[in-house]
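question for whoever is on the cluster today: can someone run the full assembly for these? two chains, 614 residues total. i dont have access anymore since they changed the login thing
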Amino acid sequence: MKSFAYRRVSSNAQAIEAARGQGASFLAGGTNLVDLMKYRVEQPASLIDINHLALAEIKPAEGGGVLIGALARNSDVANHLLVRTGYPLLSQALLSGASPQLRNMASTGGNLMQRTRCYYFTDVAFSACNKRNPGSGCAAIEGYNRIHAILGQTDKGTTSGETCIAVHPSDMCVALAALGAKVEVEGQSGKRTIPFSEFHRLPGSDPSRDTTLREGELITAVRLPPARFANNAFYLKARDRNSYAFALISVAAGLEMEGATIRSAGLAMGGVAHKPWRVPEAEQALAGKTASEANFAHGADILLRGAHGYQHNRFKIELAKQGVIRALTLAAQGTSEVA
Amino acid sequence: MSSHINKPAPAEPAAEASKPLKDNLGQHACQSRCSEAPCHGLQAQLDVEPSEEFEQLERHGLLSEISRRRFIQASSALAASIAFGMPSEAAAQETMQTGSVTLKINGQPQTLSLDPRTSLLDALREHMKLTGTKKGCDHGQCGACTVLIDGRRVNSCLTLAFAAEGAEITTIEGLARTSDPQTIEELSSVQAAFLIQDGYQCGYCTPGQIISATATIAEQQKGELSIVSWHSGQHHRPELTDEEIRERMSGNICRCGAYPNIVAAVRAAAKGATL
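^ ran it for u. tokens below:
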């Protein structure tokens, strides 16, 4: 691990001020950052320990919904009564990820900032990685790309400085995308709120950037809109082993039902793209329809439009389609209420 | 080199070599071994520009202790004779700068002088001689390093010692009912259950398993959920079924495969039927 200066801060203002320094990183749970520092993928010059900021609260938001502090730990969010009762999709997604130990450490803000688990990104022995080493090419596209993207990727060949087929590894973020959450941030130029769909980005021509967060901005909270899918939600995760593994594909499906008719839907996929994959048109196509396999398949087709696989991950396209149908079917069957 | 007992049983070279990608365990073993003092000098040289061949061998677990030492000697000689040159600015930044940190372990505060890079795990093992907590993967994947921080189980390998200042840390050494247990009655109920149910083979992962099992039982008693609770429709107050135990203990890997007896131990401890 490369040397760094450690500093503990006690206010948002202090944290933001400290982040002005070159190569500064915020340290929350550290489950991803410290790991990547050991691999020398991340080499911050200074670590600003934000764990003692007053950002861990989970509370009802003004005007409905729930406000989740950026330092609320994954296990606390998953078990909070407001989340269990109003947002089972989020609780299920969180509990599908990592291990109990890691969920006790990992923060909400840190989960948003997770880096990809692409092998070629996390292993510095591979020189070609446009995300880690901009302009160096992509070793994954002609490598072992089983866990990689099928949607929204940039594919200009292995030597192009723009190519990237990495996926965002979070489960939590897939649920937040389907729920239509918002991210609240604070920086040098004040506070702003970022719609979830605009927080993470596709690789485009710059795979080194995962998010639209500006230099030195601090995530302070995630805002959930008023609950729509409390009674009909399912998070489906397909992976190589049944626990403690990243998704090959995952689906967050929430339905607002009126009898057998879908009033509105929230739908997003994980493990398929550089960001949680949500296509509003697929959700709109479900609204007003009956909860039937044919309608679910139609929604899945829209969600997967333009999917393109590689040598080792072509199976994901059909797996994702079937996963969407299955998740919507289980969501329609109902999440029994938490007493 | 006493800390060589810190690492798990050597991986089978053939099996390791046939895997195209990283394994969950045993990777980058060099980093864990190099935390020992006598190795620092060598690491400092190697860290400038680690030989790709060396890294590859390390990654595939193909270096035995002896061949590894020879390799390091050879690399160092080679490095001196050819292309490494003067240490770069980046290498200069590797110099250790220590700071003072007070950690409260099993109720006892201890002030240490540490490099900020030191993990809580290394602080425990290398600076406080609390070697009950084990280093397996050093990347948060195996759970051998599990400790309780303010009563919650965490991976001490991914926790920086500095970040743990001010917290109550409980390690396997602090779990028993007495400070120097001589009989099974003096152990914690979970420790006793692991003994009675034979919940281990080589024992390397056991301290982490026991800490994790202790937390598993506490979490269930508080009504916390797992994904199994949701999938089995038990998301009000889940019972600790075997399926729940397996899911809740999934952050602790046992390469001996003592899982059936580990599940039995957790089940027994949860029922308070250990003695």
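summary bc i know u wont read the tokens: The domain at 184-270 of chain B is CATH 1.10.150.120 (DNA polymerase; domain 1). The longest strand of chain B covers residues 99-105.
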